[in-house]
Amino acid sequence: MNSQPRRVEHQQTDRGNIPVYAVGTVEQPWASYSRADHEVWAQLFRRQREVLKDRATREFLENQERFGMSADAIPKFDELNQVLKKGTGWEIVGVEGLLPDQVFFDHLAHRRFPVTWWIRKPEQLDYISEPDLFHDLFGHVPLLLNPVFADYMQAYGLGGVKAHGIGPEALMNLTRLYWYTVEFGLINTPEGLRIYGSGIVSSKGESVYALESDAPNRLGFDLERIMRTRYKIDTYQQTYFVIDSFEQLFEATRPDFSPIYERLASLAAFPAGDVQPADRVFHRGTGEGWVKSGDV
Ligand code: PHE
Ligand code: CO
After folding, report:
1. Could you tell me if 119 and 130 are in contact, meaning their C-beta atoms sit under 8 angstroms apart?
2. Could you tell me the distance, in angstroms and rounded to a whole number, from the CA of residue 216 to the centre of ligand 1?
């Protein structure tokens, strides 16, 4: 095997916390995980399985079981890939950290999901400002076994390549879609609202907040509305968007986005916490504790 992969993380500089990008793929250096690494996985796994019992969509929880994920040890990418390739033709590839947009889109377009090989430190159980193995594997990989969601993710990758060619505003519109679905999406089920977004399921605090707090808005999914909505990267979200099904999500995103990008280019973006007259409101947030500035 090649040399030990690097652990590419944000760097604290005099200009703040700067993201650093990796590019290539790496073998998962499984034998090099320490006892402490496996223990971080075990603690987070147990804690989130408990928190998510009646909060995550059943699909997500069942798929984790189909993968055989457990608290025992950090999963081996090779073993997950045997299940994943057979299931939906996706595969996991190891990476050293955040990827540049185009590299990320190209992976998705080829049904490869990049997973950070390293796991957070014990003092980062509650919060880490960038994706690590726990977020990527526990949070993103389970739904790749869902055929409709799997196709959505690939279509998103292809759409990303296209948006990148159109320009930075189109890319921003598309990034917001990813943020409010893949990372922070809720789904309406017969049992009530449930979580499917990876950014929520990998956070204990936000798993409770997204469903139970009175503070955030919970609004019906609307493609163009989402593409115009700014978001928060360093606090819980002020608004969550609710889909009825993964089929709805896939169908709504099937049309060519080019005319939408063009139309949106002349329209102002919405602040993260605003409710618009046309919104389907599941819950109107009280706005308690909101930081008004710093929307992306
Ligand atoms: N239909 C989108 C486009 O034309 C592609 C896409 C599909 C984007 C699914 C996101 C999700 O760009
Ligand atoms: Co993510």
Report:
1. no
2. 27
Nearest CA to ligand 1 atom 10: 156
Closest ligand 1 atom to residue 163 Cα is 12
Give residues with Cβ within 8 angstroms of 65, minimum separation 6: none
Helices (H) and strands (E) in the chain, counts: 12, 10
- Dist. CA 162 → ligand 1 center (Å): 9
Work out which ligand 1 atom sits closest to the CA atom of 250.
9
What are the tokens at 163? 């948006």
- Residue with the two structure tokens 């998510």: 52
* Pocket flag, ligand 1, residue 223 (CB < 6 Å): no
Q: How far is CA 294 from CA 47, 105, 175, 232, in A?
A: 30, 26, 17, 7
Helix (H) or strand (E) holding 84: helix 77-88
pLDDT 10s per residue in the chain (296 long)?
Answer: 456 888 888 776 666 777 777 888 999 999 999 999 999 999 999 999 999 999 999 999 999 999 999 999 999 999 999 999 999 999 999 999 989 999 999 999 999 999 999 999 999 999 888 899 999 999 999 999 999 999 999 999 999 999 999 999 999 999 999 999 999 999 999 999 999 999 999 999 999 999 999 999 999 999 999 999 999 888 999 999 999 999 999 999 999 999 999 999 999 999 999 999 999 999 999 999 888 887 88
Residue 176 Cβ inside 6 Å of ligand 1? The answer reads no
CA dihedral 211, 214, 215, 221 (to 10 degrees): 50
